Amino acid sequence: MIVARMARPEDAAEIVRLRRVMFAAMSGHDSPGPWEAAAEEIARRQLAETGRPGLVGFVVDGEPAVDGAGPEDAPRLAACAVGRIEERLPAPGHPTGLFGFVFNVCTDVRYRGRGLARATTEALLDWFAGQGVTRVDLHATDDSERLYRDLGFAEHSLALSLDVSRRPNGVSRRDRPGR
Length: 179
Hints:
By secondary structure, the protein is an alpha+beta fold. It has one domain: Aminopeptidase, CATH 3.40.630.30. It has helices at residues 12-27, 35-47, 116-130, 145-150, and strands at 5-6, 56-64, 75-87, 98-107, 135-138. The chain has a 5-stranded mixed sheet. The longest helix is centred in the N-terminal third of the chain and has 16 residues, at 12-27. The chain is globular. It is an enzyme of class 2 (transferase). Keywords: Acyltransferase, Transferase.
């Protein structure tokens, strides 16, 4: 039986390690960088929040590290599913206004094919339901789509995204010079 437990602040480094593994699997190349330290600090802080945490995750412990990636007795995570609750305005189908978002599901390469992603995701979905969340969203890769469909996920709407990092700060489009 797979035992998924709630993530703790001390799991932050391993959650970020698995996040890097996830991104490498999605893009086909590894992308280490300063984002990892920032992500670890944020994960540690948000996992420590009391009340409704900013970040919640469920993890499955793996075998102790022996590959030089840490002390030999340091536990390494085999898998994780991480998400958060977003509070929006209530709506007819969502009277609590609570929506879940899953943004990090990953299984370490050594543990794939054992149902760990399913176990951690189901634990996260159960937790969301217990918090009054009425809908959970996520972005699926081609490799993960079957798992999420098996769990009941379906297309909801067309998601559109915009990278606003290149927009001038504090200047709306209509107030820009030359408009």
